[in-house]
Amino acid sequence: MSFKTVQTKPIEGQKPGTSGLRKKTAVFRQPGYLENFVQCVFDGTGGAQGKTYVVGGDGRFFNAEAIGIIIRMAAANGVARLIVGQDGILSTPAVSNLIRKFKTDGGIILSASHNPGGETGDFGVKFNAANGGPAPEKLTDAIYAKTLDIIEYRIADETPTGINQIGRFTMGDTRIDVIDPVEDYETLMQELFDFDAISALFSGGFRMCFDAMHAVTGPYAKRILEDTLGAPAGSVINAVPSPDFGGGHPDPNPVWASELVAIMGASDAPDFGAASDGDGDRNMIMGKGAFVSPSDSLALLTAYAHLAPAYSGKLAGVARSMPTSQAVDLVAERLAIPCFETPTGWKFFGNLLDAGKATLCGEESAGTGSNHIREKDGLWAVLLWLNILARDGRDIVQLRQDHWRSFGRNYYSRHDYEEIPADAANALMTAFRDKLPALTGTSANGMQVSKADEFAYLDPVDQSLTEQQGVRVQFTDGSRLVLRLSGTGTQGATLRVYLERFVARGGDHNLDVQEALAPIIQAAETLAQITKFTGRSSADVIT
Ligand code: G6P
Ligand code: ZN
């Protein structure tokens, strides 16, 4: 085994964002691009000598090649042990679990989440820390600092050939354990949920459709849902991870998961539908002909989590990102548990979970999870739903209807204005921000404003302050309007308008969502002057 040190130069733009370094695949394939970044991940986290890491990805184009490079670099940097998923496959939640289970120093995940893959698509590298969660800012800052003055990287000459077979091989002093990507994750799910009840549900004729969207959850869902729990063969569709996700966009929402939406809208629709994204951390939930919004899903899961063994005791608390609807707040109030409101981004839940302050967390952007790992977890959400349905006995649509009858309904929708010039987006936000102090007590479109402010988060665990996390207008009837700029876009700015209208107990809970929200949509236009600033008369994507 021979190692070499390769001279290199800093490459511009290697600043990790919310979810690691995410670029066009072609950018990652440039000579030295991945190598530079991986060396900086090692160097920026205190060096790789003697360390243990988990490595895997969502199977997108360049996944296997990238893993080969990472193994060669790990060996040349003196890593003690790597745990690699067979064929280079590991979902993001599975990596989080493996880091925690085997107490490794961290993990490297190859994925650009729900972004399209393939030669012309996107690729990404994320580093997760020893708690299993996304690297905190101080680590990503340290990695970035290294990318600015890197002069060399270390790599083995030999390309490893063993990752397609479960087993063990060595490169120099580095031991590489190639593991079954599903096994440890399935064991964890078995510890959390009542698998017997779910099996009995399926043997009683319950039918479901899980759309893996040609992405990483295919092998996980097939094994767990079909092989172990006995869902009929074919319950999992698009189950083989493909390098370009079958040419699709692996984002589980009603727009991109249209195949599932069609299946769930048919007259012979199964009882339950679900989908997950490229790397397996997002989820979408459906009943017959009904989309369960992520915000409602979080509220319902909180209300019924006690039916699953792992959550049968009192929940420590729940947490939601600020723009997520307030439906879960009402449940928390009734359960007499704290409800935390955090900025958008899963990393903000980390401290609450580590400190034992929250048990369940969720975001309107299709992320739900718990203290079992430190990432959101798509298949976990599906299994918790199945556990609840198996133990409760009601149909999911009925369960939701009964929930609204008891708590009231928070009608909810997000309107996205994509690729607007950054200047226009900033001008809109500034103008809106300036108006906030004068809004309280006024009325907009017949609704009374009870509070208007810009969200800032004081972390109750480490007291860190995160400011400018979205502007919000709260109305006296419990309705709400939130505006913020996306932190994950790649082209121009994306304006997200989050609309929420509360209809209390006894009101009409079966209105069309956009119709129910019409007064809030109009108030958004009046207050934020979206058309004036963006030149757009309607949103590009409505979910
Ligand atoms: C990623 C993060 C989520 C976040 C989402 C939306 O998926 O992991 O935590 O909610 O991006 O971010 P955005 O800034 O685009 O609204
Ligand atoms: Zn994802």
Task: Please explain how this structure is put together.
The chain is of the alpha/beta class. It folds into 3 domains: 3-180, Alpha-D-Glucose-1,6-Bisphosphate, subunit A, domain 3 (Alpha-D-Glucose-1,6-Bisphosphate, Chain A, domain 3, 3-Layer(aba) Sandwich); 185-407, Alpha-D-Glucose-1,6-Bisphosphate, subunit A, domain 3 (Alpha-D-Glucose-1,6-Bisphosphate, Chain A, domain 3, 3-Layer(aba) Sandwich); 409-542, Alpha-D-phosphohexomutase, C-terminal domain (TATA-Binding Protein), CATH 3.30.310.50. 34% of the residues lie in helices and 25% in strands. The chain is built from 18 helices and 27 strands. It has a 7-stranded mixed beta sheet, sandwiched between helices. α2 crosses α3 (63-76), α7 crosses α13 (378-392) and α10 (294-304) packs parallel to α11 (327-335). The radius of gyration is 23 Å and the shape is globular. The model has no long low-confidence stretch (mean pLDDT 95). The structure holds 6-O-phosphono-alpha-D-glucopyranose and zinc ion. 6-O-phosphono-alpha-D-glucopyranose binds at residues 18-19, 113, 321, 344-346, 363, 365, 367, 486-488, 496. InterPro entries: A-D-PHexomutase_a/b/a-I, A-D-PHexomutase_a/b/a-I/II/III, A-D-PHexomutase_a/b/a-II, A-D-PHexomutase_a/b/a-III, A-D-PHexomutase_C_sf, A-D-PHexomutase_CS, Alpha-D-phosphohexomutase_SF, PGM.
